[in-house]
Amino acid sequence: MADNIFDIEIITPDRVFYNGETDFLEFNTQNGEIGVYKNHIPLTTVLAPGIVTIHNGDEEKIAAIHSGFAEILGDKVTFLAELAEWPDEIDIDRAQAAKERAEQRLSNHTAEIDVKRAEFALRKALIRIDVAHHV
């Protein structure tokens, strides 16, 4: 086993989404993008909706993560995510429709519209569309 390899586990409420190894990991936190190598300083952070990229040499796996927490330890990163999706699990037509609904709510919003919720729905749809193009 190479010296720079560490474990990653992504857990959602309904499944262990991914359990494997990586030599470099990229994902979004509420404070911005982060890259993790083995022996990163211990850290617990809030995940922001975005793309997680799991690198293994020249190979990479890409998934959509929609909020949760990440725990970074020297030789393991654990995500507790609300939702995680591989590109082939995303229904691109449904994501496009959700994007259009959210954009419509934001452009025509009235007092009854929850703007933060509509913005979150738009971001989620855009992430899904982006990840789905990596099939």
Automatic annotation (TrEMBL):
Produces ATP from ADP in the presence of a proton gradient across the membrane. Residues 6-82 form the ATP synthase F1 complex delta/epsilon subunit N-terminal domain. It comes from Agathobacter rectalis. Its main location: membrane. It is a peripheral membrane protein. This is ATP synthase epsilon chain. It holds the Pfam family ATP-synt_DE_N. It comes from the Bacteria. Gene3D superfamilies: ATP synthase delta/epsilon subunit, C-terminal domain, F0F1 ATP synthase delta/epsilon subunit, N-terminal. Belongs to the ATPase epsilon chain family. The lineage of its organism: Bacteria, Bacillati, Bacillota, Clostridia, Lachnospirales. GO terms for molecular function: ATP binding; hydrolase activity; proton-transporting ATP synthase activity, rotational mechanism. NCBIfam families: ATP_synt_epsi. The keyword Zinc-finger does not apply. It is found in: Cell membrane. One of its GO terms (cellular component) is proton-transporting ATP synthase complex.
